[in-house]
Specification:
421 residues, alpha+beta, Chloramphenicol Acetyltransferase, four-stranded antiparallel sheet, 11 helices, 19 strands
Length: 421
């Protein structure tokens, strides 16, 4: 019986996927539920499992874009499992090396049979002598004046010797050291990477995006983490990081400025009474934006646990489309890569994104005195079509206030209860 395997729908609104990599070769015997391919959608990379055991016939090439529901391979379920194969599934690692030695020998034999034998020997390459590439004394002096290496010059003299005329005509490289590598490679962008690029350009072209900045004195958060982080991790199994403070500060600010928690829907402004925070995560296939659902109902422990869970799933390529769908506001942390300041791009159709940056000790004025404190620049990019300047600045100031007074504004003056200690 021949089973036609079709592309399953990876999620709502997705109409096509791209074959990122076949994990098996044409003609391989596959086991049921064995991963046979990785497919890219515009939101995630997913594994395609075999629907039955049998011999597989591939119907699409790597890099092909195929519609949801299209046939990508056939599986002959009546085929017997080859003798000598273990239970472990065979995987394709590229080239003939992924097959067995008999296939390689057969292919080599076929190539030899198909290659005509004319009886003529292939011409030998020009023999090199001690003079090949050597510069004459006059040429050597000219090249030294030009600060050029003789290895970069092709000689026209006897046996490849570099003549005075060769040295005179030689032009030094401008901007690139002589003899440096000038190669380049071209590789196809994944569907996910291309979709991210399209969305970034779309955001720049279709929103009235502006960015406002502020700075936060992180000393109060540093002190809280220093005092409670070990007990917090011992009790809850997760670290007390910065993301929980920022997420809860965002929840508070969105309640104060609901326009920032809104989206444009045609001629209407759609405002949400819940907070789904998208967190930008760098994954193996590119930027992922999983969503923390109903962040307004989560505690410090809840936020940190969800951030850890989603980040691990994104890094291991296990994140699903549903986990990245939606979101009413985004937080991105360029500080983990050393960014001091940036203008984050809005994640459409959302209207705002908060950028965190690296924390650096800087001198600031406190009560008329100069003190050294850990400081962080924060940035809010927003859609000016529905968020006014007053609201955007007020929102970011509310973030700053909550982070600089977390015990009062985020913990209701009861740290142990807020941290569930």
């Amino acid at each position: 019986m021949i089973l036609e395997m079709k592309v399953p729908s990876p999620g709502e609104s997705i109409t096509e996927v791209e074959i990122a990599e076949w994990l098996v070769q044409d003609g391989d015997y596959v086991e049921k539920d064995q991963a046979i391919a990785e497919v890219d959608s515009d939101k995630a990379t997913l594994e395609l499992p075999a629907e039955a055991s049998g011999t597989i016939t591939l119907k699409a090439e790597e890099g092909d874009a195929v519609e949801v529901g299209a046939i990508v391979c056939l599986i002959d379920t009546s085929a017997a499992k080859p003798e000598g194969e273990g239970d472990a599934p065979a995987t394709y690692e590229g080239g003939d090396e992924g097959g067995n030695s008999e296939n390689v020998a057969d292919n080599l034999k076929k190539e030899q049979e198909q290659t005509p034998n004319t009886g003529e020997k292939a011409p030998n390459p020009a023999e090199k002598t001690y003079a090949s590439g050597a510069a004459s004394p006059a040429a050597k002096k000219i090249l030294a004046e030009k600060d050029m290496d003789a290895s970069a010059i092709k000689g026209t003299g006897k046996d490849g010797r570099i003549t005075k005329d060769d040295a005179v005509k030689a032009v030094p490289s401008m901007g690139t050291p002589t003899g440096g590598n000038r190669g380049s490679t071209s590789s196809k962008m994944s569907m996910l990477r291309r979709k991210v690029a399209e969305r970034l350009v779309e955001a720049k072209n279709t929103t009235a995006m502006l960015t406002t900045f502020n700075e936060v004195n992180m000393t109060p958060i540093f002190e809280l983490r220093k005092q409670y982080k070990e007990d917090f991790k011992a009790k809850h199994g997760v670290s007390l990081g910065f993301m929980s403070f920022f997420s809860l500060a965002v929840v508070r600010a969105l309640k104060m400025y609901p326009a920032v928690n809104s989206m444009i829907n045609g001629k209407n402004m759609l405002t949400y009474d819940f907070v789904d925070i998208s967190i930008a995560v760098s994954g193996p296939k590119g930027l992922m934006v999983p969503v923390i659902r109903n962040a307004e109902n989560l505690s410090f422990r809840g936020i940190e646990s969800e951030v850890k869970r989603l980040a691990i799933r994104a890094r291991e390529g296990q994140i699903t489309v549903d986990e990245m769908t939606g979101g009413t506001f985004t937080i991105t942390n360029g500080g983990v890569f050393g960014s001091m300041l940036s203008t984050p791009i809005i994640n459409p159709p959302q209207s705002g994104i908060l950028g965190m940056h690296n924390i650096i000790e800087r001198p600031i004025a406190v009560d008329g005195k100069v003190e050294i404190h850990p400081m962080m620049y924060v940035a809010l990019s927003y859609d000016h079509r529905i968020i006014d300047g007053k609201e955007s600045v007020g929102f970011l100031v509310a973030i700053k206030e909550a982070l600089e007074s977390p015990e009062e504004l985020l913990m209701d003056n009861n740290v142990k209860k807020a941290l569930e200690m």
